[in-house]
Amino acid sequence: QQQVKQSPQSLIVQKGGISIINCAYENTAFDYFPWYQQFPGKGPALLIAIRPDVSEKKEGRFTISFNKSAKQFSLHIMDSQPGDSATYFCAASMGGSGGSNYKLTFGKGTLLTVNP
Amino acid sequence: GAVVSQHPSWVICKSGTSVKIECRSLDFQATTMFWYRQFPKQSLMLMATSNEGSKATYEQGVEKDKFLINHASLTLSTLTVTSAHPEDSSFYICSARVSGRSTDTQYFGPGTRLTVL
Asked: What share of chain B in percent tops pLDDT 90?
């Protein structure tokens, strides 16, 4: 059972445009939602993360929007650049509660291509 | 800060041999480390959770006798793929959670590409 659904699978955006990636989760016990960026042949790098007590978090060109009632969260990349071309993963965790030991549940990933 | 290294970055071995992959937290202590494998164009699949000084907890379907995990110190965890076969070829990635904090943040290593001939 996939607990975090991510869409779209792939996304092509023009330079300067806005890239939007969406994720939906099922487990209401999740309380931590990070986004990771991964370049080919590299490990994932933490981009930005949010907790359910806020609806939006912004760091530079990256913004997470969070809708607790809809159980959805999204990543917005403003002024997208060719260097942003990578695979993006959303994830969710329920911390240390219930023996979960801070495990992350990942979405399937979105391949973003930003054309120059 | 929060740098995680892996060694080796890539390894090629013959079928039937064992391979050890090291994961180190360079500038922080990690009570908990995680091991993932990733196939091309797929997401990360959690293999096991490793807590310092105790036995690893394996995810369902992961053979603990094949993928031996040791977390002997707060900065080092190792994954040994025993009797490797071509189907074990994959990208193995570790991550570490900073000790002493009730934080979920995991920092990932650069990954190890294993190719079994």
From this structure: 75
A103 and B42: CB-CB below 8 Å? no
> What single-letter amino acid sits at B18?
S
Cβ–Cβ below 8 Å for A95 and B107: no
pLDDT, residue B103, reads 65
Q: Which of A45, A96, A107 sits opposite B43 (nearest CB)?
A: A107
Q: Over the stretch A74-97, which tens digit does the pLDDT of each residue have? A: 999 999 999 999 999 999 998 766
What is the Rg, in whole angstroms, of the alpha carbon atoms belonging to chain B? 13
The helix, strand and coil proportions of chain A, stated in percent and rounded to the nearest 5, come to: 5, 55, 40
**What burial class does residue B46 get, using C-beta atoms within 10 Å of its C-beta: 0-12 exposed, 13-18 middle, 19+ buried?**
middle
Residues B12-62: tens digit of each pLDDT: 999 999 999 999 999 888 888 999 999 999 999 999 999 888 889 999 999
Contact between chains at B108 and A89 (C-beta distance less than 8 A): no
* A to B CB pairs, distance under 8 Å: 58
CB contact under 8 A, B42 and A108: yes
Q: Which of A45, A93, A111 sits opposite B104 (nearest CB)?
A: A93
Indicate the DSSP class of residue A110: E
